[in-house]
């Protein structure tokens, strides 16, 4: 059995890990999208998404999911 203080400490650790993961996820996704934009100079992805191009949107969604899975496994 954990005491009350130990339970509060465990909750604090969990909150800190959640904050760390969210910061890592935000940084990782932002960096991945920037690199993808930098590597694909021939197409303006954001304009294509505004036009309704589902293929480009799916590429972005897949990239965000993969970065999230990588960050989840690391943390």
Looking at this protein, list some descriptive labels.
75 residues; mainly alpha; 3 helices; 84% helix; 0% strand; elongated
Helix content: over 70%
Uncertain parts: none
Computed over alpha carbons, the radius of gyration is: 18 Å
Order of helices and strands: HHH
- What structural category characterises the helix and strand content? mainly alpha
- Got a strand count? 0
The share of residues in extended strands comes to under 5%
- The residue-averaged pLDDT reads 87
Number of helices: 3
Tell me the major beta sheet.
none
- The rounded distance between the terminal residues' Cα atoms is 27 Å
User: What shape does the CA trace take?
Assistant: elongated
Helices and strands, with pairings:
Layout: H1 4-39, H2 45-50, H3 54-74
Helix pairs in contact: 1-3
Structure description:
The protein has 75 residues and is mostly helical. It is built from 3 helices and no strands. The protein has helices at residues 4-39, 45-50, 54-74. Helix 1 (4-39) crosses helix 3.
Sum this structure up briefly.
The chain has 3 helices and no strands. It is an all-alpha fold.
């Amino acid at each position: 059995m954990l005491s009350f203080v130990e339970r509060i400490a465990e909750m604090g650790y969990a909150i800190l890990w959640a904050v760390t993961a969210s910061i890592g996820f935000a940084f990782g996704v932002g960096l991945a999208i920037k690199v993808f934009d930098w590597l694909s100079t021939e197409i303006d992805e954001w304009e294509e998404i505004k036009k309704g191009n589902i293929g480009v949107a799916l590429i972005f969604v897949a990239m965000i999911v993969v970065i999230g899975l990588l960050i989840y496994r690391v943390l």
